[in-house]
Amino acid sequence: MAENKTQKKAGYHHGDLRGQLVSAARRLIEEHGPDGFTMSDACKLAGVSTAAPYRHFSSKEDLLTEVAKDGLIRLRQDSEARAQPLPRGTVEAIAAIGRGYVDFAIREPHIFRLMFSTKSHAGRIEELRSVGRQSYGVLLNEVALYLGESEINDLVNRTSFPLWTHVHGLSFLVIDGKLDVNNFPVDIDEAILFATKSLLPPKPRLEKA
Amino acid sequence: MAENKTQKKAGYHHGDLRGQLVSAARRLIEEHGPDGFTMSDACKLAGVSTAAPYRHFSSKEDLLTEVAKDGLIRLRQDSEARAQPLPRGTVEAIAAIGRGYVDFAIREPHIFRLMFSTKSHAGRIEELRSVGRQSYGVLLNEVALYLGESEINDLVNRTSFPLWTHVHGLSFLVIDGKLDVNNFPVDIDEAILFATKSLLPPKPRLEKA
DNA sequence: TAACATAGTTAGCGATGCTTACATTCGCGT
DNA sequence: ACGCGAATGTAAGCATCGCTAACTATGTTA
């Protein structure tokens, strides 16, 4: 059982209860789904009483939003890590970002749904949107490189969007069990690569050196 | 306010309580989300006591599954109706099916999510899957026509899948508000048509007359 | 070291909402 | 006409949880 970061586990004062609650919630949500998740479970896992969280979060929703935000940030880090080792601005790098997206969904399906859900986030949707845009930005940058564009312009946006749409849909189909091995022996890598190639325009000669 | 089909509204015996509960649930879920939906609300809407549903459904989940099933059937009818007036086996017909898919999601986002969710359906997932396959079949048939294939073979499957994936993802992005007009002035028709064209292979000369 | 802010505890309120045991009423076949 | 079974009503059980009020313990600062 891997102990968590910033574990002080001292006595009364916890050290980083806020952070621990987020990661406790993360684990529990993955295990029982966002509905099966209860505050007291999170408290039990963090080793505090049921009232303690309310020093750090105004409500259960507030905590859930934090978990979602955390997920979006990790998704971005994932995506970056995937693209980095590959030759930049290539189909492969773009496909790798997509693969990272789907893998995240597979690894943490409940969190993934939570991240893109609008409900359970009260008045903080705009905040989430902003973090989400940063994750999307990883793809935008890579596509810009592919297209040889020096900034995120309209062409980059229009090119990236169907790619996002595709992996987003693929993610949901996978985690919702629509791709059972019998009827859909889908090779995810192949699916992503095919769609990426099909949806990208031919790589232009570099004119703006 | 359109009265529902099979409305008898007689006295004690209801006529078609089962059907009415499904459509009541449908309306309520669309209004308050699947979580905000309660049995007693459905009962109130159908004009019966809270115990009455249990003569027709074994549980709340059971009713929800029925609503989902109903949705999948209606989705299929929708898709068929969209493709029918258009020249068969064309890009346009295929795109129209996709558009129907997204429109359904927009029209009934909560039901749409419920239809593809795995939870809330207890032991009836296989049943739902089967109904879902029928909806997907509409696309498969159209793609088969496009490809000039006389049956649903592997090529048809492989060609159809990314199309489904794309509109599925698009649907979720739309209903989850990721395409706000400011940052994503996405023309849905255009998006679908572009993806459909990109993901379909060139139309083959018809050899099997 | 006194005083104050911060973090956590204990106890419990209050509301919700599914489900069931049992009574009741109606439609239909005989 | 009548009786049986299906359909609905009544009433309540009961478990779950989110959240709060009031209290206690620790850390920090002057």
From TrEMBL, chains A, B:
Keywords, A to Z, come to: DNA-binding, Transcription, Transcription regulation
User: Which Gene3D superfamilies does the protein's record reference?
Assistant: Tetracycline Repressor, domain 2
Domain (HTH tetR-type): give its ranges: 15-75
The domain of life is Bacteria
Output this protein's name: TetR family transcriptional regulator
Question: Does this entry carry the keyword Transcription regulation?
Answer: yes
| Residue spans binding DNA | 38-57
Give the matching PANTHER family: HTH-TYPE TRANSCRIPTIONAL REGULATOR BETI, HTH-TYPE TRANSCRIPTIONAL REGULATOR RUTR
**Which InterPro entries does this UniProt record tie to the protein?**
Homeodomain-like_sf, HTH-type_TetR-like_transc_reg, HTH_TetR, MT1864/Rv1816-like_C, Tet_transcr_reg_TetR-rel_C_sf
One MF term from GO for this chain?
Answer: transcription cis-regulatory region binding
